[in-house]
Amino acid sequence: MADKEIVVTYGVLSxxxxxxxxxxxxxxxxTRLKRSGVACVVEQGVGLDAHFTDADFEKxxxxxxxxxxxxxxxxxxxxxxxxxxxxxxxxKPGTWVIGALQSFTDEAYVDSLKQxxxxxxxxxxxxxxxxxxQSMDEMTSQNSVTGYKAVLKxxxxxxxxxxxxxxxxxxxxxxxxxxxxxxxxxxxxxxxxKRLGAVVTAYDVRPAAKSEVESLGAKFLDLDVDLTKGxxxxxxxxxxxxxxxxxxxAAVDRKAADFDVIITTAQVPGRKPPMxxxxxxxxxxxxxxVIVDCAASEFGGNVEGSVARQxxxxxxxxxxxxxxxxxxxxxxxxxxxxxxNLADTVVHFVREAAQExxxxxxxxxxxxxxxAAMVVAGGDK
Length: 381
What we know:
It is built from twelve helices and 18 strands. With 381 residues, the protein is of the alpha/beta class.
C-alpha cells in the first residue's frame, strides 16, 4: 500500500520513570501511521524500557530528536499518561494532546489545557460501546495486561503451587483463587489463573458477568445479596449506593475466608475504587493468603489496608500487594497495545478538508459521537 502525502506530524515523548516502562509508540506503528499521512517524531530513548531502540524507530521511518525538538515540531502529541505541568508549559498553543488525562476527577487540569489553547483528547472518555471505537480502547488493552500480570504476581507471592500436583510425598491441592471484579482485567485474571491450574471463583455486581465468568470455566460467587441493578453505562459497573456497598462488603468478607488468593480489579471510571474487602475480611483469611489489589491508588483501593506500590504483611500473615502499575511491568505487550490505541485515535481525527484541494488535517467534529465524548478542550469547547 502506497503511503499518503504527509499532512500531520505526531510526536511522542519519553515518559520513562521508576514505575512507568511503557512507550506510547512502537516501530510498527510508525510504519502504520505513515500509510495514513502521519509522520512520527520521537524523543531519544523513548522505547528503551520496552526494548525498542532509537535505531528501530529510525529504520521504521521516524525522526529521533530531543525533547524540545519533538514538542516544537509536532502537530499532535501522544501520551501514555498525561503531560506534567512543566511539559504543558513548553507545548505551543494549537497543539493537540492525546492521553489519559484524568479528566473525570481533575477539572483544574482540564481548565489549564483550555487556558493554554491546546486541543485535548481524553482517552478515558472513549465511548467503548461503539464498534468503531474498539481499536482506540486503551482501558481494555491495558486492563487485559493488568489482569494477566496480577495472577503472575500472586502466584509468585503465594507459598504453594497453583495447580494440583501429585508427588511421591502426596497430593498437593490446587490453590483456590477469588477474583473480585469481572471486567476486562478480571476476566483476564480468571483465564490466567485457570491456565495455571487454580480453582477459580469470581464475583461482579453486573448481572451480565455471571455468564462471562462461567464461560471461562470459573464459578460465580453467590453472595446471597440482591445487587441486580449493578450494571452501569457502557457495560461497566455503576457506583453502588451506601446500603448496597455495606451489604456487598459484609458478604464478601464472610466468603473470602475460603480462598488462598484474592485478586481485586473493580474500578468505576472517574471515581474512587469501591471497597470490596474490609479489614474484617482480611483478618479472616488464613495465614499465607495473598491479595493483589489492582485498583490501589492515591484514592484508595478495593482492599482495606492496601497501599499503592507497597507489599504489606498483616499481623495474621496475609500479604497485601497494592499495584496500580501492573501493565507497565509487561512493557513490550502493553506498549504495543497502547501505541495502537493512541495511533488509531490520531488517525480518527485526521480528516479530509471540506474545501476542495485543501490538505487533510486534524479536525474536531462535534457531530461525531467519539469527538463529542473525548475532546475536553479545543474544538468548540
